[in-house]
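README, section 4: Worked example with a bound small molecule

Sections 1 through 3 covered apo chains. Here we extend the same pipeline to holo records, where the ligand is supplied as SMILES alongside the sequence. The molecule in this example is zinc ion. Nothing else about the input changes; the structure line simply encodes the ligand pose together with the chain.
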Amino acid sequence: MSKTATRTMTSCSACGSPKFNRTRILEHEDTVLGYPVMLHDGVDLIDCLNCDHIAIFIPDMPGLIATVAASRLMMGEKLNGRELQLIRKSTGLKAVDLAQKLDVTPETVSRWENNKEPMRHEAERSLRLKVLNILSTRTHVFREDYEALIALDINPIRPGKWPLMHFHRVKVRDVDKRNVEPQWETALAA
Ligand SMILES: [Zn+2]
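The generated complex, written as structure tokens:
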């Protein structure tokens, strides 16, 4: 379990004062990896008592990004080039490393990401599995659902804007079953 998962804010980011009011926001709308997201009951409004600075505190951003990416990879709509690039970068994987994992040339990955060549379904399925495997160390979402992914039908690219994806915080027992920690999880649409 990474330290970031339990990190809490201890001082104002503007003046450093440890005195602030903290209020839970029931629904916070934001954009993560280019997708509109609604974050339920996990984000705090921080109101500094010293300098009046107001900020939004989203806990465990790396975990949230991984959960959003994993959720997207489990959806059937074909990835467009921009989505592929944003999701790849969020894993820290370089284009050349992804190419090697998929046994294609870096130029091919570049053409996929620039929408110059569509990914074949088999390549996309393999890509999704490999990226999800990397993400599984950062999010518990779909960790044991690889079979569903293998069976996933890949449909045409979704035209237009994505609908809101919903996420909330749940307590999850870690792999060693020692700690129960809050993590981001996909929620059904409210
Ligand atoms: Zn302050």
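What to look for in the output: Residues 12, 14-15, 17, 48, 50-51, 53 surround zinc ion (CB under 6 Å). The radius of gyration is 19 Å.

Section 5 describes how to batch many such records.
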